[in-house]
Specification:
Helices cover about 35% and strands about 20% of the residues. With about 210 residues, it is an alpha/beta fold. Strands 1, 2, 3, 4, 5, 6 and 7 form a seven-stranded mixed β-sheet that branches. β2, α3 and β3 form a beta-alpha-beta unit. The longest helix is centred in the C-terminal third of the chain and has 24 residues. It is globular and about 40 Å long. The N and C termini lie far apart (about 40 Å). The N terminus is likely disordered.
């Protein structure tokens, strides 16, 4: 490895797919299955971050609510009824640490991106970083992440979130919830899913509170 390789290594690209892609649920669930731990942990914990007081930022709680209805083999934190947001995130993470011995955490959140990337769902290794887009200091969440680009970044983020179309957020939440549920069901049955080469879109993501 030369010095340039050593100091300029790129992180593995996250998998990205548009929520309207006809294979979105199938391929996203396959991708998520490859990100789940090879060995069983005590529990899979899904933390859906956001608030129902903002249309764009309601993506996380919507995913959490839809997941609860699907009854996944996982513990879900963050729903429309009991959202996980900037005010209580630290408290929720402390509760998870106390309630679960070795949790594998999946962090879910909305984010902002470029105009051509609105509607894209991203799954990858590492945590979500809630609050980064609006300069808030909040803990990173998750061994892996699942995010949805709900609107355009760069100017008046709070106003942009308030004016995000609910129709878009609902459709993205449906795809994310079903994909997660299917991947966890397959993981529980210990049935390997076919791995496919992921398509990628370049994007600069801004995490929301």
């Amino acid at each position: 490895m030369n010095l340039r390789d050593k100091f300029f290594q790129k992180k593995p690209a996250a998998y990205r797919i548009h929520h309207e892609d006809t294979l979105a649920i199938k391929t996203l669930s396959e991708r998520l299955s490859t990100l789940l731990p090879a060995r069983r942990t005590d529990s899979i914990v899904i933390v859906c971050i956001g608030t129902d007081r903002s249309t764009g930022d309601a993506l996380g709680p919507l995913v959490g609510t839809k997941l609860e209805q699907l009854k996944p083999k996982a513990t879900v934190y963050g729903t429309l009824e009991s959202p996980v947001h900037a005010v209580n995130l630290n408290e929720v993470m402390e509760s998870i640490a106390q309630a679960h011995a070795r949790p594998f955490i999946i962090g879910i959140d909305a984010c902002l991106g470029r105009l051509h990337s609105v509607g894209i769902i991203t799954a990858g290794e590492g945590p979500v970083k809630p609050g980064a887009g609006v300069k808030k200091e909040l803990p990173e969440v998750g061994n892996i992440h699942l995010t949805g680009i709900v609107n355009v970044s760069g100017f008046m983020e709070y106003f942009v979130l308030q004016n995000t179309r609910l129709n878009l957020v609902m459709k993205m939440a449906d795809v994310m919830a079903v994909s997660l549920h299917e991947s966890i069901e397959a993981y529980g049955r210990n049935l390997p899913l076919e791995k496919k080469k992921a398509s990628n879109w370049g994007d600069d993501l801004v995490q929301l509170p």
